[in-house]
Amino acid sequence: MSLKGFLIAAPQSGSGKTTVSLAIMAALRRKGLVVAPFKCGPDFIDPGYHHLAAGHPSINLDGWMCPESFVAETFALHAGKADVAVIEGVMGLFDGIGDSLMEGSSAQIAAVTGAPVVLVINARGMAASVAPLVVGFAGFDDRVTLAGVIFNNVGSASHGDLLRKVMATHLPEVTLFGCIPRDAALEIPSRHLGLVTVEDNPLTSHYLGRLAEMAEKYLDLDELVKLQIPPSPFFANGEALTLSLSFERVKEGSSVRIAVAQDAAFCFVYEDNLRLLREAGAVIVPFSPLNGSCLPADVDGIYLPGGYPELHAERLAANSSMLDSIREAVADNMPVYAECGGFIYLTEGMEVTEPATPIDFAGIFPVRTRMLSQRKALGYRQVECLSGTVIAVSGTAARGHEFHYSEICPMPEHIERCYHVTRQGADLGAEGYRFRNCHGSYIHLHFGSNPAIAPAFAGACKSWRGVLQT
Length: 470
Known about the structure:
CATH topology of the largest domain: Rossmann fold
Strand content: 25-35%
Number of strands: 26
Strand order of the largest sheet: 14-13-15-16-25-24-23-20-21-26
Number of domains: 2
Low-confidence stretches: 191-195, 236-253
Radius of gyration: 23 Å
């Protein structure tokens, strides 16, 4: 099956990849095309904006957290449903883990998926020097195909003309897809954890319209959508193959219902985690700890993803009926999996400065959480399960990512530690806490890193329901 699409990369962070990606997605959608958005790396912020611009959920593609076969297959599965796939890269094109040029980089995703690369170059203050820069990226690694470039932050019409002349003279074989002028009004706000979430800063239709107009005016969209992705081994007879890393489903008619927190406070979840849970036989039941009065009826498990609960702490604390509902579920031994912000929600609450009113959360884990002025943790994590939990048996290995500005007070020793955590071989000690059937951690695991995780969680929920019915 022939796929169309491309990967938007850059020589370095801050070149405008996100704004350009959103502009292209919004413009192609306005042309009536079905756009499949993707994001390289473990980021949760950009995919939220992708969803708004493209009209479809954005899928994370990460070659360190997940096996390359999973990356290729999940890309083929989602891209095969669209007219064009648009992948936004991460950092610089060849910026991977440490000094690696491939592992965890946008270049790795380009090589695995076969997507041609469109390089966004911040042309501010540059003229003929763009030529050797492009030459370097074009010929650096034959596993990566450079389809062309977009110059961003172009200072004037004459600056754009100069850049076009440079490319025509020195690199006629490299397509110049357009020159985008500087426009501070189109920048997306930032905060201490990076971009503001789409839930807290929903892009207006007017803003998205301006982005689309920018792409229509300054970019050759017709040429972009002609870019072809080589035939994939994960397609046969025009149909996507069943993912080889998918798991055995539970028996028909025995699906379990898992309540998944989804609102402005809890919005950091890998879309493939939800898909893999569905493939394992789960029905995803969204609920809002901010706005709901209690857990949805007849659920067999709870998934509390990450987010920014600290921005909504007072409202979360005031929703006592929801907190009571979650406490009752934990007391009944319902399987609960919580990560980062969801884990914070299960602590006793947020530390506050006197004489402010205490902010109390569920209190499942007997510690309080405090916000820090500097980042506490950032980076990939590998975990090995020291004991069985609701998501894995003892000895299971999985990979994920950690990024937060908060920390918990020392966890009492009687609370079981379920993870042994490492970072690129460095020992980070024990983490991952369990109380009854409730499992919490700061680490966002990608379920695609180990095909046993989703069915383990679905199975734990099914077993709980069976016990409850006996």
